[in-house]
Model the fold of this input.
Amino acid sequence: MYGFTEVTPNELEQWQAEGRQFRLVDVRSPGETARGIIPGAELVPLHLLPLRKDEFADPETELVLYCQTGARSAQACAFLSQQGVDTANNLRGGIVGWAQAGKPIASPD
Done:
């Protein structure tokens, strides 16, 4: 086991529809996020995650992390898990999987 779970694009959309409370975190680089993000995502580039790890330590707040294809966000989830954060979820397939499932993409602010 990785120490974290994965959610599919459909599961994430269901969480949104249910009004479930979670933080959606995009760990891609600014150059990548300029092409579009999942609506409501916070931008925290992967290289900054270790510096900001304490921001994600709230046991009451579920996290969903994603990147382009799910590989880097899986690394981010594993890192957070090693830091004692057990609320991290990886979006399976990343934003590519999200888009392939026909889900909306927004421009970053």
User: Anything to note?
Assistant: The CA atoms of residues 36 and 107 lie 5 Å apart. Residues 5-100 form a domain with the Oxidized Rhodanese; domain 1 fold (CATH 3.40.250.10). The chain is about 35% helix and 15% strand. The longest helix spans residues 71-82.
